[in-house]
Design a protein that fits this description.
The complex is a heterotetramer, with two copies of chain A (about 400 residues) and two copies of chain B (about 250 residues). Chain A has helices at about 15-35, 35-50, 60-65, 85-100, 115-125, 135-140, 140-150, 165-180, 195-220, 235-240, 310-320, 330-345, 350-360, 385-390, 395-405, and strands at about 5, 10, 55-60, 70-75, 105-110, 130-135, 155-160, 185, 225-230, 250-255, 275-280, 280-285, 320-330, 370-375. Chain A is α/β, with parallel strands linked by helices. Chain A has two domains: about 1-50 and about 85-195, Rossmann fold; about 55-85 and about 205-390, Rossmann fold. In chain A, the strands form four sheets. In chain A, strands 3-4-14-9-10-13 form a six-stranded mixed beta sheet, sandwiched between helices. A four-stranded parallel beta sheet of chain A has the order 7-6-5-8, sandwiched between helices. In chain A, a hairpin with a 2-residue loop joins β11 and β12 (about 280-285). In chain A, α4 packs parallel to α5, α4 (about 85-100) crosses α9 (about 195-220) and α9 (about 195-220) packs across α10. The longest helix of chain A is centred in the middle third of the chain and has 24 residues, at about 195-220. In chain B, α7 (about 135-140) links the parallel β4 and β5 (about 145-150). Chain B has one domain (about 1-245): Aldolase class I (TIM Barrel), CATH 3.20.20. Chain B is an alpha/beta fold and about 250 residues long. The longest helix of chain B is centred in the first third of the chain and has 14 residues, at about 75-90. The two termini of chain B are about 25 Å apart. The chains are: A alpha/beta (about 400), B alpha/beta (about 250). The interface of A and B includes residues 1, 4, 14, 281 and 290 of A. One pyridoxal-5'-phosphate binds near residues 110, 236 and 377 of chain C. One pyridoxal-5'-phosphate binds near residues 114 and 350 of chain A.
Chain lengths: ~400, ~250, ~400, ~250
């Protein structure tokens, strides 16, 4: 264990001793794969035959006209199998699990998206699968629980802590320290101990690689700005990696929740409320109190409702390579609504954060400019959350009737 | 020095007993009473855990105690005040145990200085391998405090030696894979693991994770130097109250 | 109006006089487009940038192993934007609407799938949109209603007749005879008066075109058999068209419901219960009584729950080019469950009908043979129906709690 | 022949009145009573609709009557028996109206033969344009029955001539786009439409869709030969019962 995976002080691997050997093995297998040109090929092949890669880049003509500024393009990760960019990461890690000869995978999930993706990968590769999910999330994202169970996964409800994503991560670690011999922990975002941030970003970089090529083919020039929402940071890292060496402004959008002043948000890099800390095995900005205890976070989007953030993004913030902004719950619902109506695209609530900021900036840019928004997932999976966010009375009526039918 | 203290004690007793509690659980008053009973009933050293919101290496029992303590208002300051008080009041070594973020946010140097001034003997930080702990190690060294490192059954021999080269006082050997508070089957497989541990270091060995009753203690005699009781006392307190601690500890001997 | 669109006696255009001119215009525009090589190019382009075409063909390795027979491949129409093959048809018709200069579209919908697809297309192209949906379907497929409304469509609940798909079609015709000047009726399947069966099949043929090429590239040989579910027949026609001139056996699978003997099914070409008739503007096999009154149909899959069937399929049945089978509700749920567990694929309940028959036949074929199943859509949209089909108690619990939350 | 009959009547009256009912709605007894009142109050000819499960050209009122009649057990056989009876009982021409599937399933030749034998005068099949109706037309011809075709405001002049070449008895002009039973605004635009209709054929013209009251009738005098009342009587029956029909019809004159 030599390379501790630091990004100018962020990252690292703060591991219970019992996991050190497991991480050594993982790092080795990952490094071998990364340096094996066949591996990326194998990965791209499975993503194009099992999922639908390359996912297209869609010109949002109506929104462009509406905002009267830069041309708006959307990278369509919502068209992935299982409905989000999460598929890229899990399929990649699945290939590594095969290389390690392990037979079981575990994962945490917030929105349920990563859980469904992992359970799907497990079904495809024939692995056993356990998914940890906070009780709050089990309640708000139940359809995903239903699908995980259909996929053959065991879903464990986590009733500890704040009972959301971070607590699910803790529980997954607890499982892993017991079962690392046959089990791989498929971490769902570019967080956690090294090599996870790098590894997840590596798999997600397929987004940026494709997008850069696609935009150049279509427009023969680079986008001026690229927008992505930031939960743990994997979809953002994925698309940003395509443009890091280009003169392209990269914008990460965090969950502003009820507003940055409200204390009820999950903005780690775009607010003053976070500070550097070490938890869940890595060093980054956390929303924590002065004692180092993690705080409650809030977002309308379960997938962004997380206390930490990718150490690589923390580094890119400190070096001013990426700008970070926040979008409030209300702005998110409005942007989602507008995108649906104008383009027939249904971004996930998470992804809609990126749209909010793009919409704020598009009108200020010249018409020749291009901006690219990463639609990390589709919103139709999250009907319960979305219907609540839109406060749709017909939906409530429908649910009440359905319940009565079940009670009869 | 802790090592010397332990070796001296080991001349008197076949096996020492270390207990673990979560500070402020169920309350600071109770914590004090528990420590008092433990010392009275012959515990040799104690591990005082400053609660953390994300204790990833702990199992459900200790996790729950961490959360309860925090929700009842435990802070790092209160924990320090309390630890200083007990270190003064009782004549056995006390170690602080917590996750690295607690030290980091406090300031590693300030934290360790405070430990030293408060009369604490050493620290266990389960999510801080020596590679990440340069700062921590140099400060511990400076204040003559014992950084306790952990061996696990998955730790290769070379790494044991590497870890031991940083450790002071004793080595904490985790009996099995997994988190705290789960039954351990003390089989003979343990022997070969402990043999490796012993060969890699001349520090005393403590064994934790799953020690629950007298028969476990007896089994460990001659194999390790210190038995660690953690979750079991918390379970006992939850079930029978603070008053039950003394009898339980006495019975272990 | 010369070409009446007959397929050996099936088809035709039995139109109220008021619509004759509208159909003349439609036929003319369609014929022009069809003969314009640019048009298909424009169509393929929009399908590849707005949806995710070509959709992949996925090798179902685990199912192949499980059944120990022919190699099973799956054509992934579930990866289309909006989650089913319906997108192919609506986007195509959308381009024609633009050519006709009309500004409003209407559509019927059963499962809701075609309604969502049409509403999406309308949003994208900037058309006004009204969707007719039977009351029974509104109740069982409410999430789709929610999305259609978000997409800006007006959803009209049809309370006439059996209150399912066929009644929604009738209502759409009633709207059309009033508003044909500015309105195009986007029929959702390969049924209805000429030129709809041909036109919808033409757009859907993109499925078969792609699939043939993909299988040949992967395996250098043609599949022995191709399976598709048959509601109105559009996804079946779409994939079959790729193989009509090949020595490939084509198998259409209808809704067997509670069993062919039960009378509660929607099997028109694979049961003895249907007879030739004329309704909704075309001639085909209908499930009707001796007086010519349409009967009640039943299927666990709303999208297959229809009294008529594509006249082109009726013709292909009579000429023995396509074989027709039926799958019961129970078989469908089992096949769906198996496909999810083994491959991580979630076929729509409709599509699962095709899997049922493929699973029955795969073990009887040699290992060198290839069979291709059209996964016309994804099942995760239909969580309410699927959860009921699986009779999941946790789901019921979740809905009850949700209702209580709304009542509070 | 129907045309001759109508022309003769038109010498006596400025405008004729055709009414439409759905057979078996609300019941066959009621249907009989309705017809009786209509004939008594001076209706000149009647359109008897055999209900169909998918009446796509009909609006909500007639659609609903179709469904109700079917759900009360109306069959094609009952409709034929009934129609034969009324054709015998009353001395005005009766036309059958239905969708093509009813004829097709019965057998077009059998259906038309039965019509002829039952004393019916002609038929209106709104979803059967002449292009699809070769069989129907030849059978109607053979039995000397009048196939009534429909003009609509969207029908081009050339097609009017084409349709008229197949029609017998009269032409049914639809007053506006849309289905039956919706208000029509009898504006002056109607004039140019009707002028085209008139020029394309020498058959009498009937105008339907939306005729509801005496002022409509008066407005149509001189413009068309026959006014058709459809949904309005059904609405009346639903609201006020069968007894109200006679007064309503008498008032139209
Ligand atoms: C659709 C979608 N987008 C974004 C995220 C946030 O994760 P990340 O920041 O790792 O991309 C999630 C997490 O569940 C998600 O489901
Ligand atoms: C996923 C899916 N498959 C199949 C069908 C049946 O239609 P068709 O037979 O026209 O393909 C539907 C109809 O809604 C559908 O949603």
């Amino acid at each position: 264990m030599i390379d501790r995976g630091y990004y100018e002080g962020f990252g690292g691997a703060y591991l219970p001793e019992i996991l050190v050997a497991t991480f050594d093995e993982l790092e080795e297998v990952f490094n071998k794969a990364k340096n094996d040109p066949e591996f990326w090929h194998e990965y791209a092949e499975i993503m194009s035959t099992y999922s639908c890669r390359p996912t297209p880049v869609t010109f949002a003509g109506n929104l462009t006209e509406y905002f009267k500024g830069a041309k708006i393009y959307v990278k369509r990760e919502d068209l992935n199998h299982t409905g989000a960019h999460k598929a890229n990461n899990v399929m990649g890690q699945g290939l590594l699990v095969k290389r390690m000869g392990k037979t079981r995978v575990i994962a945490e999930t917030g929105a349920g998206q990563h859980g469904v993706a992992t359970a799907t990968m497990a079904a495809k590769f024939g692995f056993k699968c356990t998914i940890y999910m906070g009780e709050v999330d089990v309640k708000r994202q139940h359809p995903n629980v239903f699908w995980m169970e259909r996929l053959g996964a065991e879903v464990v409800t986590v009733r500890e802590g704040t009972r959301i994503l971070k607590d699910a991560i803790n529980e997954a670690f607890r499982d892993w320290v017991t079962n690392m011999d046959n089990t791989h922990y498929v971490l769902g975002t570019a967080c956690g101990p090294h090599p996870f941030p790098e590894m997840v970003s590596y798999f997600q970089s397929i987004i940026g690689k494709e997008a850069r090529k696609q935009i150049l083919e279509r427009e023969d020039k680079l986008p001026a700005r690229v927008y992505a929402c930031v939960g743990g940071g994997s979809n953002a890292m994925g698309i940003f990696k395509g443009f890091l060496d280009d003169p392209v402004e990269l914008v990460g959008v965090e969950a502003g929740g009820r507003g940055l002043d409200s204390g009820r948000h999950a903005a780690r890099l775009s607010s003053q409320d976070a500070s550097v800390g070490i938890a869940q095995g890595y060093k980054t900005y956390f929303l924590q109190n002065n004692d180092g205890q993690m705080r409650h976070t809030h977002s309308v989007a379960a997938g962004l409702d997380y206390v930490g953030v990718s150490p690589i993004l923390a580094y890119l913030k400190e070096t001013n390579r990426v700008r970070f902004e926040a979008a409030t719950d209300k702005e998110v619902v409005d942007a989602m609504s507008l995108t649906i109506k104008k383009e027939g695209l249904i971004p996930a609530l998470e992804s809609a954060h990126a749209f909010v900021q793009a919409f704020k900036e598009a009108p200020t840019l010249p018409k020749e400019d291009i901006i690219l928004v990463n639609q990390s997932g589709r919103g139709d999976k999250d009907i319960f959350t979305v219907a609540d966010a839109f406060a749709d009375p017909k939906w409530r009526e429908f649910i009440r009737n359905k319940a009565e039918e079940y009670n009869a | 020095m802790l090592k010397d203290f332990l070796e001296k004690r080991l001349k008197e007793k076949e096996i020492l007993l270390m207990t673990h509690i979560v500070l402020g659980y169920p309350s600071f008053e109770d914590s004090f009473e528990i420590i008092e009973s433990m010392v009275r009933s012959g515990v040799d050293l104690m591990e005082l855990q400053i609660p953390f919101s994300e204790p990833i290496a702990d199992g459900p029992v200790i996790l729950h105690a961490n959360q309860k303590s925090l929700s009842h208002g435990a802070t790092v300051k209160k924990c320090f005040d309390f630890s200083t008080k007990v270190a003064q009041a009782f004549d056995i070594p006390f170690l602080l145990m917590s996750y690295y973020n607690i030290l980091f946010k406090y300031g590693v140097d300030r934290f360790i200085e405070k430990m030293a001034r408060g009369g604490l003997t050493g620290a266990i930080v389960p999510d801080l391998p020596p590679e990440e702990g340069t700062d921590y190690l140099s400060n511990m060294e400076r204040h003559n405090l014992a950084p306790i490192f952990i061996f696990s059954p998955t730790t290769p021999y070379a790494r044991m030696k590497y870890l031991a080269s940083f450790g002071k006082g004793f080595i904490y050997c985790v009996a099995r894979k997994g988190v705290t508070g789960v039954n351990t089957d003390f089989s003979t497989e343990l022997d070969s693991y402990l043999k490796r541990c012993r060969e890699s270091t001349n520090l005393p060995l403590a064994l934790g994770f799953g020690v629950q009753e007298k028969s476990d203690m007896d089994f460990l005699k001659g194999k390790v130097d210190i038995a660690v009781i953690g979750s079991q006392t918390i379970r006992l307190i939850d079930r029978e109250g603070v008053g039950a601690v003394e009898g339980f500890i006495k019975n272990l001997r």
